[in-house]
Amino acid sequence: MKMIEIWINCPERETAEKISDALLANRRIASANIFPEIQSSYRWKGSIEKDPEIPLVLKTREENFSLVVDEVREMHPYETPSIIGVPVEFVNRDYLDWVYAETEQ
After folding, report:
1. pLDDT at 80
2. What pLDDT sits at residue 105?
3. What's the pLDDT tens digit per position in 23-76?
4. Exposure string (b/e) for 7-37, b if CB count within 10 Å is 16 or more?
5. Do the beta carbons of residue 8 and residue 19 sit within 8 Å?
6. Which of 15, 17, 18, 90 has the CA that lies 20 to 30 A from 54?
7. How much is the pLDDT for 41?
8. Do 56 and 7 contact (CB within 8 A), yes or no?
9. Span 71-100, mean pLDDT?
C-alpha cells in the first residue's frame, strides 16, 4: 500500500472546491487541503506571467494518480494544469489505512 499527495494550482478557490468535492464524492481521494492564495511566476508561450493561484493538495492511494489526472483535466480551466504526484515515503499506519478505506480505485 502506497500513498501520494497530488498538488494542483487552481486559478481561484471555486475551482479548487469543485475539484476536491467531485473527487471526494467519487472516492478518488480521501481528503483535500485548500491553501490561501499564493503568487505564481512562470513562463507561458514565450512570456513571463505572474498570477495569483490557490494550491490544492489531495491525498490518495498511488494507483489512483492517473484516474485523478483524467478527472482533474475535465474540470480544470487551464490548458496545461500542473498536476504533480508526490510519493509519501513515511506515514503513520492508521492514517494510511484510513486513506485506503476512504478511496476506491
Report:
1. 97
2. 82
3. 999 999 999 999 999 999 999 999 999 999 999 999 999 999 999 999 999 999
4. bbbbbeeebbeebbeebbeeebbbbbeeeee
5. yes
6. 90
7. 98
8. yes
9. 98
pTM: 0.96
Comparing CA positions, the residue from 37, 49, 44 lying closest to residue 9 is: 37
Residue with cell 504533480: 84
Among 105, 60, 51, which Cα is nearest to 82's?
A: 51
DSSP codes, the chain:
--EEEEEEEESSHHHHHHHHHHHHHTTS-SEEEEPPPEEEEEEETTEEEEEEEEEEEEEEEGGGHHHHHHHHHHH--SSS--EEEEEE----HHHHHHHHHH---
How big is the CA angle at 84 (ends 73 and 61), to the nearest 5 degrees?
A: 90
C-alpha cell at 43: 513562463
User: What's the count of helices (H) and strands (E) in the chain, helices before strands?
Assistant: 3, 5
What is the C-alpha end-to-end distance of the chain, expressed in Å?
Answer: 12
